[in-house]
């Protein structure tokens, strides 16, 4: 263990953390802004990973076709969930229904694809910052793309008519309806767009990790930690907190060992909840307005 090795670990953790942030921001948007308690999030991410794998390895599709396929499937899946299992404002019902839908997707994928882990076996080129410190080209590319996508989504919410309509419905659905906005259609579109972000995250996760039916469950746990720690509804906060969580996670593994990883990570999460229950990047006033 030396400083150079730790710096290398941190740099690579930052890249992975950017993807964590993008992965978590979609769930934060769904729960914190749209007020949909979607616990089928991890399973949906897992399906996107499998689509990426089969599109590339089994069906030999071009990358452009794979990306369009994953985005289209997630858009339709988001609309389907919004019209069925999330067609209610009761949080308890949403949690139960989406959890059941998650189990259906996991078991269906297990039945069709088996539980055998799949990976793309990509040989990642290393970019050397110094003779001893390097970063994976795929990880760095995914980090940059994650930041660009999240920034573009925020611009979309601020600059486009649909984005402003989404913000209006989030802030006050009744007043938005009085202003001529079809709140149900806007919520459908917003939720489907958030699912497209899940699809993009799934593609990135497949490039860095392996796909298996339970892969989404771990990422859903990470997304939960990131979103609640950042503050529900804070998209930029989710990106920053994703990076922080990745650095903390890598540091625990580096200094202490993987067997202490989960207990320490959750202990830190509990401490954050005690100190700032409304999130690191949220304020009490913002929580009262958005939730």
Give a short synopsis of this structure:
With 291 residues, the chain is mainly α. Helices cover 75% and strands 2% of the residues. Helix 3 packs across helix 8 (183-208).
Please outline the helices and strands.
Layout: H1 3-33, H2 41-58, H3 63-83, H4 91-113, E1 126-128, E2 134-136, H5 137-159, H6 161-171, H7 173-178, H8 183-208, H9 215-230, H10 235-255, H11 261-275, H12 284-290
What would you say this structure looks like, in words?
With 291 residues, the protein is mostly helical. It contains twelve helices and two strands, in the order H-H-H-H-E-E-H-H-H-H-H-H-H-H. It has helices at 3-33, 41-58, 63-83, 91-113, 137-159, 161-171, 173-178, 183-208, 215-230, 235-255, 261-275, 284-290, and strands at 126-128, 134-136. The chain has a two-stranded antiparallel ribbon with strand order 1-2. It is globular. The protein starts with a helix and ends with a helix.
What is the SS-derived class?
Answer: mainly alpha
**Intertermini distance:** 45 Å
Number of helices: 12
Q: Would you tell me the overall average pLDDT?
A: 88
């Amino acid at each position: 263990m030396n400083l150079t090795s730790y710096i290398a670990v941190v740099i690579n953790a930052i890249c992975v953390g950017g993807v964590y942030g993008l992965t978590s921001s979609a769930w934060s948007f769904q729960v914190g802004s749209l007020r949909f308690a979607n616990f089928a999030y991890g399973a949906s991410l897992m399906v996107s990973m499998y689509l990426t794998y089969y599109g590339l390895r089994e069906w030999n599709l071009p990358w452009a076709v794979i990306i369009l396929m994953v985005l289209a499937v997630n858009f339709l899946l988001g609309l389907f969930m919004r019209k069925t299992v999330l067609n209610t404002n009761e949080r308890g019902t949403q949690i139960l229904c989406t959890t059941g839908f998650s189990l259906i997707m996991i078991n269906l994928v297990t039945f069709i694809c088996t539980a055998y882990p799949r990976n793309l076996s990509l040989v990642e080129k290393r970019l050397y910052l110094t003779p001893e410190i390097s970063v994976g080209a795929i990880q760095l590319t995914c980090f940059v793309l994650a930041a660009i996508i999240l920034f573009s989504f925020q611009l979309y919410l601020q600059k486009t008519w649909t984005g402003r309509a989404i913000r209006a419905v989030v802030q006050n659905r009744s007043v938005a309806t009085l202003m001529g906005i079809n709140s149900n259609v806007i919520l459908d579109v917003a939720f489907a767009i958030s699912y497209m972000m899940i699809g993009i995250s799934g593609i990135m996760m497949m490039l860095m990790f392996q796909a298996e039916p339970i892969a989404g469950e771990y990422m859903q746990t990470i997304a939960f930690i990131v979103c609640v720690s950042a503050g529900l509804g804070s998209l930029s906060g989710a990106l920053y907190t994703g990076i922080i969580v990745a650095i903390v996670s890598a540091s625990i593994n580096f200094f202490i060992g993987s067997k202490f990883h989960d207990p320490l990570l959750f202990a830190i999460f509990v401490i954050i909840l005690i100190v700032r229950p409304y999130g690191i990047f949220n304020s009490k006033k913002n929580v009262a307005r958005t939730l």
